[in-house]
Amino acid sequence: MESEQQGQPERQGPLRNIRILDLATIIAGPLAAGLLADFGAEVLKVEMPGKGDGLRALRPHKDGVSLWAKVVNRNKQGITLDLRTPEGVNLVKRLVADCDVLVENFRPGTLERWGMSPEVLWKANPKLTILRVSAFGQEGPYAGKPGFARVADAMSGFLSLCGPADGAPVHAGYPIADSVTGLFGALGILTALLERKENPDAPGQVVAVSLFESMFRILDFLAVEYDQLGEVRQRTGNRNPYAAPGNVYRTRDGQWCTLAASTQTVFERLAGAIGRPDLIEDSRFAANTDRLANHDDLDAIIGEWFAAHDADDACAVLDAAAVSAARVRTIDDLFADPQVQASGMLVRVADPELGELRMQGVTPRFSRTPGAVHRPGPVLGGDNEAVYRRFLGLSEVEIADLKAKSII
After folding, report:
1. Which residues are known to be catalytic?
2. Is the pTM higher than 0.90?
3. Among 91, 206, 260, 333, which has the highest number of CB atoms less than 10 A from its own CB?
4. pLDDT band at 382 (very low <50, low <70, confident <90, very high)
5. 156-185 burial, b if ≥16 CB within 10 A, otherwise e?
6. Cβ neighbours, 10 Å, residue 60
7. 321 burial class (0-12, 13-18, 19+ CB within 10 angstroms)?
8. 357, β-bridge pairs
């Protein structure tokens, strides 16, 4: 059943004593902070007055409201602040004095130009952890280059693996480099905070993560494969380049199913399930290396079987034989999926602009100190008065003056 989150106490979870000032925009940096907000970290999301984070301009929208921002910036308090002004810089310094972490993703050198270098920020808070997210890193010949997820996909080598062998590289339908970098950013923050806890007298430090480096890192063995074997891996389409059979197959009812028979025992169970136990004794398919060498022949056999069955029926047969396969699903399938329903992977949360929303729940799951979704991404500047009063002790007159000057 779907989880009801709106009655949950705010900021529950193991990070409830951590405070983060999120200056970042679009996806990777805000996601890093947002993942920690899921587990109770208090995150102050800073946006430009009148404009907001550029994420608000990206589709999808409902009634002019960014749905993407509702998820990426969930569990955060939203304030506005013009970082390009001396007054804005002064307010950042005052805010970080009581924060554990600052997150930013401006092009390297931008914060320094605005008067907020790490050295300046550390004068306000000597123990501050600073997560710096960029396209290509803080150093090196590419450091000053602009870049987004699709560029990082290409330059990291990731995109060269995606798509048909005889066609153009194919981007994923989602900016995966932003998500991967957000995960690495969250890992970096947590690692730095753990080190600080173990060395309480140590000064703060910069944690640098980039889209380019993150996507290169997840290529895993490709670097050592080239280093040791001189091999440059190429695109193989949907075919698994490591084990066979492994592909996406069209079914009788026009659906698609993916299959992964990555071990010998699974292949043998697959052969029995499709009524072809003879495949086990066929020298072309005796071991994984043989199957990879003869994958065209094997794919033809497997493809013919799928083509004779409807997708759900084919998957039921394979499930019964403990063979890993699934119909390729769309989001509406997931909303109706019994596993999603039973595990609470979707949660309901109240939103002041759009009413009730459903979005993904928190992962990973903690048995004793779970996280929660207690609010969607904030209205632009919706927490200005509460935050500036609570953290900085500003009066109504001072807040009104800052608004009049478009500083907040």
Report:
1. 178
2. yes
3. 91
4. very high
5. bbbbbbbbeeeeeeebeeebbbbbbbbbbb
6. 8
7. middle
8. 349
Distance CA 206, CA 107 (A): 15
Question: How many CB atoms within 10 Å of residue 397?
Answer: 8
Kindly state the helix (H) or strand (E) to which residue 177 belongs, with its residue range. Answer: helix 176-198
The closest alpha carbon to 154, from 143, 144, 163, belongs to 163
Pairwise CA distance, residues 299 & 1, whole Å: 39
| CA of residue 61 relative to chain centroid, distance | 20
> What are the tokens at 218?
């997840």
Distance from first CA to last CA of the chain, Å, rounded? 41
Total residue count of the chain as it appears in this document: 408
Short-list 256, 229, 241, CA closest to 291: 241
Report d(CA 36, CA 19) in Å as an integer: 10
* Dmax (CA) of the chain: 84
Residue 152 burial (CB count, 10 A): 27
Could you tell me how far CA 366 lies from the centroid of its own chain?
19
Domains, the chain, in order of start with CATH, read 3-219+347-404 (3.40.50.10540), 246-335 (3.30.1540.10)
Give me the phi and psi of 211, to 5 degrees please: -60, -45
Q: Who's near 20: CB < 8 A, 6+ residues apart?
A: 33, 36, 37, 41, 42, 43, 44, 99, 100, 101, 102, 103, 189
Looking at residue 16, its amino acid is R
How many CB atoms lie under 10 A from the CB of residue 286?
14
pLDDT digits (tens, 9 = 90+) for 75-109: 999 999 999 999 999 999 999 999 999 999 999 99
Count of helix runs (H) and strand runs (E) in the chain:
17, 14
Quick check: 188 and 128 in contact, CB under 8 A?
A: no
Please name the residue that has the structure tokens 């910036």: 73
At residue 43 the predicted structure's pLDDT band, cuts being 50, 70 and 90, is very high
* CA dist., res. 401 & res. 408, Å (int): 9
Q: How far, in Å, CA of 239 to CA of 248, rounded?
A: 7
> Could you tell me the CA-to-CA distances from 5 to 38, 161, 354 in Å, in that order?
12, 40, 16
Which residue type, as a one-letter code, is found at position 300?
A
Instruction: Give SS3 for 316.
Output: helix
